[in-house]
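Slide 14.
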Amino acid sequence: MYALPRIAARYVLRERLVAENPELGDRAARKQRRIVELMSEDLRQREASAETAALAPQLALACYKAGHEIAAGDPDALWPSVAAAFDRLGVVAGLG
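Slide 15: predicted structure.
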């Protein structure tokens, strides 16, 4: 079991609330976009290439979204599903 019971219960509640309230889903999407922007800014400040600063945060979000979809609301499946998406990127890129 990956998630602590109390955290898992909150995760399940949050997922239900977001599913039942489109405005919460919109808010979550805006927060995710802002996190991507902040990650890009941070990478640029650390002198990452423009390609890395643009691509890495988008790929991270894509892996989270794919893992989230695959986990299908199961808090214990979320982290392994996200990790598997990152692993799959390595295979697609010829790294694994």
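Speaker note: Helices lie at 5-20, 22-45, 50-71, 75-92.
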